[in-house]
Design a protein that fits this description.
The protein has 85 residues and is an all-alpha fold. The protein is 51% helix and 0% strand. The chain is built from three helices and no strands.
Length: 85
C-alpha cells in the first residue's frame, strides 16, 4: 500500500469516530412520561406494607420474664465484700 491509501483510511476512520461522537453529544436523552409514571408506581407498590406497624413499644423483649437462675438463688446477695479478694 502506498502512503495515499493509508492517509485516506486514517482520515476516514477519524471522520467516522468524530461523526459518532458529535452525533452522540447532540442527541437528547429524555425519558418518556410513561417510563417516569411506571417508576413511581413500582416504587409505591414495592414500599407499601414492607415495615411492620411501630406502635407503642418497639422492644419485643421488654416484658420478658426473668429466667436467670443466679438472680433467684444467689448465695452472694447478702455479702458486702468480695469473697474472692
Amino acid at each position: 500500500m502506498d502512503k495515499k491509501t493509508i492517509v485516506i483510511i486514517v482520515v476516514a476512520a477519524a471522520a467516522a469516530v468524530g461523526g459518532y461522537l458529535y452525533w452522540r453529544s447532540t442527541r437528547q436523552m429524555q425519558p418518556s412520561p410513561e417510563a417516569v409514571g411506571t417508576g413511581d408506581i413500582i416504587t409505591q407498590s414495592a414500599t407499601q406494607g414492607v415495615l411492620p406497624a411501630l406502635g407503642g413499644s418497639t422492644n419485643p423483649l421488654e416484658n420478658q420474664p426473668n429466667v436467670n437462675p443466679l438472680d433467684v438463688v444467689n448465695p452472694f446477695n447478702s455479702v458486702k465484700t468480695n469473697p474472692f479478694q
